[in-house]
Amino acid sequence: MARTPQIHRTQRPGQGLRWPWAGLAAVLALAGAPAWAGSATAESIWDRAHALEQARQQVPQGAVVTRELCQEIEVGLDNIRYRCSVEWRIPSEAGPDPANLAPPGG
Q1: pLDDT tens digits, residue range 33-69?
Q2: φ, ψ for residue 71 (rounded to 5)?
Q3: Is position 29 within any domain?
Q4: I want to staple 89 with a disulfide (CB 3.0 to 4.6 A). Which of 37, 73, 82, 101 is the partner?
Q5: In Å, how far are 46, 63, 72, 74, 78 from 40, measured between CA atoms?
Q6: Is residue 2 part of a domain?
C-alpha cells in the first residue's frame, strides 16, 4: 500500500493575522452602508401592466422604487409572456432621503 505524502506548511511571523484583519475591514465597510436594496420580478400571460403590478406588490413598505424594467418574451405560437422587474432601496434612518428634499428657495 502506497503512503500518502504529508505536506507540512510553515507559517511566517505575522502571516496568520492577515485574514482576520481582512474580515474586520469587510464588516466595518458594511456597517457604514446607508441603505439596502432589493428587487422583485413577476410574470404575466395577460399584459405588461399586470406583470408590473405583481412585481410592485413585492416591494417592502417604505422602500423607494429606483427602476422598473419590463420585457416581452415570445413563448411560441404567437404567445407572449410579460416579465417585469422592480428595483428598490430602503433609505437609512440616519437622515432624510436626498431625492425627497425640496430644492433651495422652494
Answers
A1: 455 789 999 999 999 999 999 999 999 999 999 999 9
A2: -145, 150
A3: no
A4: 37
A5: 19, 12, 17, 21, 27
A6: no
